[in-house]
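Need residues for this backbone.
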């Protein structure tokens, strides 16, 4: 995802440079030709060149879509259920490990918390492991979204959607429901805490 972002950004910078250069030249030159009413060659060029540029963006984009849909053998499966207006989580590989995750109220926050983004229960996941997320909803449409992990999966009542990702560093990753799912739609934050494998095993052992 980062490589694709850099690739696309370079193409956008090239386009921006050419457009700014042409605008400056047009603004500063004094050339006038009242008989020039059409230009077939320039019209062909500014139709074909953008099409070629779009191909250079589309090919790696489609490749990335297929790579992200590839199902690896997951080390861990996490079931996520969207409710109005909070998330509940079940660690499907373990017995009786489930909890609800609500937004931290403003009067209970400390200086280290992010307003409207922190939760009372973090999702603890091991780093450097393939994680499968199975997403559904109990009432209305939701969307489980963590931008920094490149994950956005719709939570649909009566349907299971899945996606997978790998976290390559420890830390906190924040997200929110990105579906307009009702009055408190903006108060469904997601906090993923990435830890090393030993810490995760100790945490899951204490819960189960």
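Answer:
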């Amino acid at each position: 995802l980062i490589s694709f972002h850099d690739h696309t950004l370079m193409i956008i910078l090239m386009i921006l440079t050419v457009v700014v250069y042409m605008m400056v030249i047009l603004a500063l030159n004094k050339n006038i030709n009242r008989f020039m009413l059409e230009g077939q060659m320039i019209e062909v060029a500014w139709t074909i060149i953008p099409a070629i540029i779009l191909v250079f963006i589309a090919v790696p984009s489609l490749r990335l879509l297929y790579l992200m849909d590839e199902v690896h053998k997951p080390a861990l499966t996490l079931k996520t259920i969207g409710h109005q207006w909070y998330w509940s989580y079940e660690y499907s590989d373990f017995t009786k490990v489930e909890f609800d995750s609500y937004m931290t109220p403003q009067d209970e926050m400390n200086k280290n918390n992010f307003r409207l983004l922190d939760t009372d229960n973090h999702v603890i996941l091991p780093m450097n492991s393939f994680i499968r997320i199975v997403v559904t909803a109990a009432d209305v449409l939701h969307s489980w979204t963590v931008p920094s992990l490149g994950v956005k999966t719709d939570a649909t009542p009566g349907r299971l959607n899945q996606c997978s990702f790998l976290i390559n560093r420890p830390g906190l990753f924040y997200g929110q429901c990105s579906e307009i799912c009702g009055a408190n739609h903006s108060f469904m934050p997601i906090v993923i805490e990435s830890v090393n494998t030993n810490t995760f095993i100790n945490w899951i052992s204490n819960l189960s």
